[in-house]
Every structure is written in C-alpha cells, then in structure tokens.
Design a protein that fits this description.
22% strand
Length: 367
C-alpha cells in the first residue's frame, strides 16, 4: 500500500490537499480522507474509485507544469528582465548546468577569441614578435649591434677593449714596472736596493727592544772621531752582566782619564822591568853574582824610602836572596827567569844575593 497526495479545487478556486491510500491492486481505498489537516470519514465502495476531474485553465496549467518535469527534475526557464536573481556565492563542486549568455557577452568573447588568435600568429620559436615604433626599433638595432661587437671581443673570460695609443703606451709601462717589481719579492718579502746618493735616509731614533739585524763594517773601513767638545753618547756604569766588547787602546801620548784608588780591583800584570824609577826617587842597577853569598852595594850604600825591586834576568839560572848566609838551602826568596820581588828594606846594603851557578844576572831598583 502506498500513500498519495491529491489536490482538489472548488468552484470558487479554493485549493485543498487530500491524502489517500492505494492498495496493492492500485484500487483506491479512502477510509480516512484528510483534507487540509481535517480528517473526514468517507465510506466508499472499494470497487468504485473516487474520480477527480480538472477542467479549463486548471487543466491547462497542470499539463504545462507536467511538461517541465524531466527524469524527476523540474526545469525552470528564466525570462528576460532587470530583477536580480539572488546572489551567487562560492559553491565548490556544484554544477549549475549550461548558462546561455546574451548576445553582447558573446560578442565580447568572440572579440577576445579573435585577438588571441591574432596574437598566436606573432609567436615564433618561443618568443613574442612585437611591432614597435621606428625610433624605438632604431635604438634597439644600435644596442644589438654594440652587443654583438662586444661579444666578438670576449676571450678567455675577459673583454678585449681597444684604447687610444697614448693610453696603451702608459698601460704597457705600468705592466713592465709591475713585472720588474715582482722579481724583487722573495719569500713574501720585498727586497729594496738603496742606490748610492747623498740624500738622508729617514732618521734612526731610539727603538727599545727592536733588533735591526747584524751590521757588518768592512775591515778596511775605520771610523775616526774628529776632535771636538761634543759628547759621544754616554758611558754609564755597566754591571758585570753588560759586555760592550773588547776595547784596544792604541799607542799614544794622550792621558787616559785618571786612575783612582780601586780597593780589591785586579788590573792584571804590570811590567816595570824596563821602566827605571826616576833618579829623584831612587835609582837602579844591574849586575851578576856567582855561587857565593855577596852583599849588594858593599862599597856604597843606598838609603831606601820604600824598599827595593829585585828581578832575575837570567834565562836558566836561579837567583836567591836573603841574609849573609844565603845559599840554595838558606834564603828568603828564590827567583826564576823573569820573576821579581819587592822588599821593604831601608838600605840596599842589607841585601845578600846568591846564584845557582856563576854569573846569574839580575836587575835592582830602589825607592
């Protein structure tokens, strides 16, 4: 059984909706007819279906409406007019069917299609051919010519540029100078050769802790300091840790400062054998002695203010000295070749000499 809806219209044009039920044979059963929400009990023989008739405009309208239904869908035709038809909003995936455009819109699309077709004919090998004004074309041709010329001058990643002769000469000179300068570089250091000349080379100022390297003065070169009153630097006290090198005093008659008392200072050996004391301070003499104790100055005595110097001048023999019993076993001193001794005695006649062999020579001086 199925439920169907029936629309009824009275003579005044009022429309009513009625629901009824069909049995399995398609015969109408209306035990309960509902008309516009009101239930009406109607007893009708099931063998006599309720006829429904529509006439006039109602029938025509129903027939026209039925023709708009296709496959269960109602077809709607929008008539020409100025009224807005709702609002078209985004409808993803919704198919609104075919849309017929007005003649004006179609003409615009045709014009676009024509222009697109014409534009396509100007495309060749992936580029768009554009017709420009004559002046613009002339400028583009000049740029193209210049670019082509530059392209022909490119070689090994550089552009070859033709310059004026004077400029080329200057560039050649710079290149030559640079090449020459490169030869003076050794181990990343620039070698500089100072030419002979009289020009001053800067100023050598104090450079504490700066080492300028070794300075070699040729053996043939000497430095002579001219006489003057200017100070030559200053020699200050130098402790034992400071060494200024060997100083050699040349033979001269100039006075060398002043020798003052130096307690405990060893100035080395001083040779006085060849220097006789001045006569005003004493005297000197030479002689020889054999293997017998002999008093010096037995005939004439020499009074000493300080004492006497005795020096053995013999090459091999030994000179002994002392009292009157002096010999090789009894002596105060024994001098070998070149040795000397100072005796603080008051008179030369107090000294006895003895030689290890005959003719042992000696030198004596007194003060």
């Amino acid at each position: 059984m199925t439920t169907q809806t029936l629309y009824l219209r009275d003579a005044d044009g009022n429309k009513y909706k009625a629901k009824f039920t069909l049995d399995g044979d398609g015969e109408t059963l209306i035990p309960n007819l509902v008309v516009d929400g009101l239930s009406v009990n109607i007893d009708i023989d099931s063998d006599t279906p309720l006829p429904v008739h529509e006439e006039g405009d109602a029938l025509t309208a129903l027939q026209a409406l039925a023709s708009t239904i296709s496959s269960g869908n109602l077809k709607v035709i929008l008539q020409a007019g100025a009224n807005a038809i709702g609002k078209l909003t985004a409808n993803a995936g919704v198919n609104i069917g075919e849309v017929s455009l007005a003649t004006l819109a179609q003409a615009a699309l045709d014009a676009i299609n024509t222009a697109t077709t014409a534009l396509a004919t100007t495309v060749a090998t992936g580029r768009l051919n554009v017709t420009v004004a004559a002046a613009v074309q002339t400028a583009l041709d000049a740029i193209n010519t210049a670019t082509t010329l530059v392209g022909t001058t490119v070689g090994s990643g550089r552009v070859n540029v033709t310059v004026a002769a004077a400029v080329q000469t200057a560039l050649d000179a710079i290149n030559t100078a640079t090449t020459s300068l490169a030869t003076t570089v050794s181990s990343t250091n620039l070698k500089v050769l100072l030419q002979a000349g009289s020009a001053a080379i800067g100023k050598l100022a104090a450079n504490s802790g700066v080492i300028i390297g070794a300075v070699e003065i040729a053996a043939s070169q000497t430095v002579a300091l001219a006489a003057g009153s200017a100070a030559f630097g200053k020699l200050a006290a130098n402790t034992a840790a400071t060494y200024i090198g060997d100083v050699v005093l040349q033979a001269s008659t100039a006075a060398i400062g002043k020798l003052s008392a130096n307690s405990g200072v060893d100035i080395g050996d001083v040779d006085v054998t060849s220097v006789a004391p001045a006569s005003a301070l004493g005297g000197s003499d030479t002689g020889s002695v054999g293997s017998t104790a002999t008093r010096y100055d037995s005939a004439t005595s020499h009074v000493c203010q300080i004492g006497v110097w005795i020096t053995n001048t013999h090459a091999t023999q030994v000179l002994y000295g002392g009292g009157s019993n002096t010999d090789t076993t009894h002596f105060i001193f024994a001098l070998y070749q070149g040795e000397r001794i100072f005796l603080p005695i008051a008179n030369t006649n107090l000294l006895y000499l003895y030689g290890s062999a005959g003719s042992t020579t000696y030198a004596i001086g007194w003060l």
